[in-house]
Amino acid sequence: MSTSPDPGAPAPARRRRARWWWLGGTLVLLLTGAAFVAAELEHRAWVEAVAEYEAEVARVTEEAETSRARAEEAYADGLATLTGAIDQARPVYRASEDQVADPAVRDPLDDALAEGRRLRDAEVAYPVETRTVEAVTRPNPFFAEELPAVTVEVVDAAQPDPAALESAATDLVTTADTVATARREWAVAELRPATDEGRYALTGLRAQDADLGLGTLDDAVTEAEAVLDAGVDAVDPDEAVALRDTLLETSASLWRTRLDQITAERRAAARADGVDCRVDQCVALTFDDGPVAETERLLRILERKDAPATFFMVGDNVAKNPQIARAVADGGHLVANHSWSHPQLTTLGDAAVREELRSTSEAIADATGTTPFLLRPPYGDVDGRVRTLATRTGLDVMTWNLDTLDWQTRDAKETRRAVRQQVEPGSNVLMHDIHATTVDAVGKIIKDLRDEDYVLVTADLLVEDED
Ligand code: NI
Q: Of 83, 217, 228, 370, which is most buried, counting CB atoms within 10 Å of its CB?
């Protein structure tokens, strides 16, 4: 359609034009309004994006600034916990040496200490991680704007990890606790037999009515009994060990004194009877492994010859033949301990050795009324440990220095010849009253010795120490 202004146009045409103008104006107004609204929305979105961007930048910057301090603090806390646990566990481990025997108990603590030290001594590192806030571009061609990408470095961990330090510390506490408990159990297991030895010494020494100061031992026994009554959980292992040592040392030293007294008293009594092995040519005949039926025949020979002898008795035989043991003692002979069952004592544990010796001494005391003070270990098998155990059982160890080998030859002539050929002042002659051939030889042996001016004595009177 083509129109042009025409002032002379009729009124309907003017009105039409006016309507078009109105419509056009309205349209322009609408479009302008829409543009304003769109611009406003775009602006708001941008403001929001800027705010988000700035918040994110602020967040990562703050994280970057504080993360190292946080990581350092966490590491320092972990390290302090671990160092404390190591300091607590190390003395537990050291103290348990030679005490906690089970490697399954002690090795885990050793491992935990090694791991703890490794972590404690490891150089600490703070690895960094890069955090990026992405760039933001305003998608408006009329207002081109860009917020740049921001990159910061954040420490998000320490190496070693504080959690690993804490976990190693927990391992140390747990394993050290197990070892400490095992050590308390060990201490009680040590103290119990020592208390028993102390009690045994007290009873034995009191029964002998000897003039000995028993106060220290009495106090130690009372204290040890209280510790044992209090139970494993209450035990201080160091105190228990000290108490054990006091009990054992005091028992040994009191018995030592008592044994020396006995020897001195018996030698003085012998000198009063005119026998002094410092001057006389003394010989001791000793008979092991009885008493048996053959022992009675031997006693008759000795009685006829008025010859003293020493009998190292096997406890089991004493229990079987108490009246023979009694006859030996009544004959004026010295009765001594040769263990209960004739084992090699060095191969037995402490408790078994004590049992061998005590039961025999008791059987002898029951049968004869006299407690023996000499021990001849079977086979002469003895070491420092058995010697100490013997002392604490009130027994002096005595072996021999003239072996007739009567048990091997089983020949009266050979036995007699062995003595005649080897005898010298101080001879401690080993024979066995369980062999008839030996008993057959004894009368002639005594005659031979007396012909040579030897004086027969019990073995304890020989001056030379035969051990
Ligand atoms: Ni024997």
A: 217
